[in-house]
Amino acid sequence: MEGGVDYLIDERKKAQFDVEAMKVAWAGSRQAFELSDRIAKLVANDPIFEKFSRPMLGRKELFKNSLRKVAHAWKLIIDLRLSEEEAKLLRHYIDEPAYTDLQWEMFIPAIEGQGTEEQKRKWLPLARKMQVIGSYAQTELGHGSNVQGLETTATFDPQTDEFVIHSPTLTSSKWWPGGTAKVSTHAIVYARLILDGQFHGVHGFIVQLRNLENHTPLPGITVGDIGMKFGNGAYNTMDNGVIRFNHVHIPRNQMLMRVSQVTREGKFVQSDVPRQLLYGTMVYVRQKIVADASKALSRAVCIATRYSAVRRQFGSRNGGPEIQVIDYKTQQSRLFPLLASAYAFRFVGEWLKWLYTDVKQRLEANDFSTLPEAHACTAGLKSLTTSATADGIEECRKLCGGHGYLVSSGIPELFATYVPACTFEGDNVVMMLQVARFLVKTVSELGYKQPVGTTAYMRRVTALMQSNCAVRTAEEWLNPGVVVEAFEARSTRMAVACGQRLAKFENPEEGFAELSADLVEASLAHCQVIVVSKFVEKLQQEIPGKGVKRLLEVLFYVYALFLLHKHQGDFLATGYLTPKQASLANDQLRILYSKVRPNAIALVDSFNHTDHLLSSILGRYDGNVYPKLYEAAFNDPFNDSDIADGIHQYVQPMLRQELHSAKL
Ligand SMILES: CCCCCCCCCCCCCCC/C=C/C(=O)SCCNC(=O)CCNC(=O)[C@H](O)C(C)(C)COP(=O)(O)OP(=O)(O)OC[C@H]1O[C@@H](n2cnc3c(N)ncnc32)[C@H](O)[C@@H]1OP(=O)(O)O
Ligand SMILES: Cc1cc2nc3c(=O)[nH]c(=O)nc-3n(C[C@H](O)[C@H](O)[C@H](O)COP(=O)(O)OP(=O)(O)OC[C@H]3O[C@@H](n4cnc5c(N)ncnc54)[C@H](O)[C@@H]3O)c2cc1C
């Protein structure tokens, strides 16, 4: 047997559930599934969107090719009259970071959230028709996480009724904004507002960067690319830029003025809208990043699972086939929790989208009451899901052995493109510290204020602190109430313990800094409560299709009990579990893996990923791995000739012992 075609055919026969119904459950609805499937095929069948060769291209060629793809996609959007939802799916399946990500996911949302009605009327139609192309220039060479520490200045000049945008130091150079180096005509630039010598906080300003006719940078603007980034292909399709402003004048009405205004006389007016709304675009994108995590993780898991069923090692008896590596318990204990995590992140992402839609509607109606919770949830879940996904993709590479390291496995580029998600839109540790602030506040108010939303479980603080887990057999872990309660008790106890230790510090900020590592762990525990509970809520809904709900229940227990096993130190140290109960959870986990095993291939088929999206020989739907790996090796341009450049010049003289006289 040269390929694994028959192996995957056999595997698909083992499925104990309706794969088509699971595809619908994964997509969210039949309509969402059909839409997504249609756009996936549109992209897969269009040669312009080919991406297998991307890691082999040089930077300039890669970038030009990316511009071509965007232009082609925009043409399709217009010609086929695609809706915004369809256009976003098109972006997902094209699978290439490009300047349009910043246009649609940051520039436009920033104007929508922070602009006045007049500013929206002017800028949004231009941006939505791509008549201006915008980016989001917040981070600087010297400051990224600390937004209030930004150095770029926007000084009001009452004489001309303009702001003067200036980069006073080298470290104030804008550094990282995607789409800026070569493409964007405008940017939302975050800068310190200075009125009559007084600093009035950091605000966003719409600044034109390039001449719309010939694309040259405007006077006073120095702009360029910050250089190659990690990995081949990957995020190098994006032109992340550096910008320096030398006293660039913009009209006063280009400050985004929903939160605060500057009058013609140069007076600062703070509206009732909280200052935190300036950070609203980041809340929006963090929510998108959570939704995206399940897509990235499911891709890696799909590749590793299919390949694990094709790959065989050891155990051959009488010349028969060796064991499929997916049958090793160690392989299952590494792979199946990731498979379960992909489903868990899919459902929590769905919920977070709902939460964001709700908060957005409230903000539009000037109801800001749920903003702190939305901020804590988006920051925390962004951190949890991207860290787990980045680690998960790397684990999938290792699960594929040596072949996982080949670019043709699809995993290296996926990893290189994905990992910056742990840093952009808020470094993951900095984001967990935001959750910590929210938790500390919640805990300190427990005596007189009922926690709401995702912290509502802490209303039962006394019970969660005092009662202990009642599980006596491995079977008793198969109860969602028991599992969720264990996570809630561990989280409450960790948060309360942090609160008690913080109270011993005279200066709360000093205490927060000193205990920050523990606070990050408590925040992670709280975020895990959210993911676990949202999975349970999903299971409480009607989920049609033979065996679909049962398999999702299995995945829920795999996800939760795997986390419990991984963090058993917390569960034991907080005293909620005994070592025996933790060990029973692990026993149950092994039983669960054997329930996943026959369904593994069908569960990854349910993601409905096309071979185009996976761009992986190891993860091919048909399992025809070895012939295609062999073919791809000889299709590599490096194999065009048997004698590589340099052989005659540098190797042959060595073989002939003539190196001393060779021209090097
Ligand atoms: C291809 C791979 C996958 C990609 C995913 C695909 C998804 C599609 C999307 C595509 C997107 C495009 C690509 C993305 C490119 C990347 C872009 C960027 O990275 S843009 C720059 C992002 N920068 C950051 O995230 C900076 C991080 N820092 C901060 O957010 C803040 O400064 C801070 C949270 C660290 C707070 O700092 P601090 O100084 O302590 O705070 P303040 O004094 O300013 O405010 C404190 C107060 O405000 C509350 N707060 C903070 N942030 C928010 C918020 N966002 N919303 C609401 N409230 C907020 C905070 O809790 C405090 O409240 P208080 O009650 O006072 O305690
Ligand atoms: C691919 C990519 C695309 C990007 N695109 C954009 C863009 O379009 N527009 C834009 O404006 N920006 C963009 N960025 C910048 C990005 O938002 C920042 O890099 C990010 O917010 C992190 O900030 P930083 O680089 O200042 O990290 P730093 O804050 O310097 O982090 C360095 C280390 O310090 C730690 N640290 C920092 N502060 C604290 C603290 N208070 N407590 C404990 N530890 C701390 C961090 O955990 C980290 O380990 C992009 C970045 C990348 C990688």
From TrEMBL:
Domain Acyl-coenzyme A oxidase N-terminal intervals: 18-133
Residue span, Acyl-CoA oxidase C-terminal domain: 480-655
Signal peptide: none
Keyword Membrane: no
Protein name, as recorded: Acyl-coenzyme A oxidase
GO molecular function list: acyl-CoA oxidase activity; FAD binding; fatty acid binding
Stated family: Belongs to the acyl-CoA oxidase family.
Record-linked InterPro entries: ACOX_C_alpha1, Acyl-CoA_ox_N, Acyl-CoA_Oxase/DH_mid-dom_sf, Acyl-CoA_oxidase, Acyl-CoA_oxidase_C, AcylCo_DH-like_C, AcylCoA_DH/ox_N_sf, AcylCoA_DH/oxidase_NM_dom_sf
Pfam families per record: ACOX, ACOX_C_alpha1, Acyl-CoA_ox_N
Cellular component terms per the entry's GO annotation: peroxisome
All residue ranges annotated as the Acyl-CoA oxidase C-alpha1 domain in the record: 279-440
Residues that bind FAD: 139, 178
Coiled coil: none
Cofactor requirements of the protein: FAD
UniProt-listed Gene3D superfamilies: Acyl-CoA dehydrogenase/oxidase, N-terminal domain (1.10.540.10), Butyryl-CoA Dehydrogenase, subunit A, domain 2 (2.40.110.10), Butyryl-CoA Dehydrogenase, subunit A, domain 3 (1.20.140.10)
One GO biological process term: long-chain fatty acid metabolic process
Record-annotated active site: 425
UniProt keyword terms in alphabetical order: FAD, Fatty acid metabolism, Flavoprotein, Lipid metabolism, Oxidoreductase, Peroxisome
UniProt key word Methyltransferase: no
Subcellular location(s) per record: Peroxisome
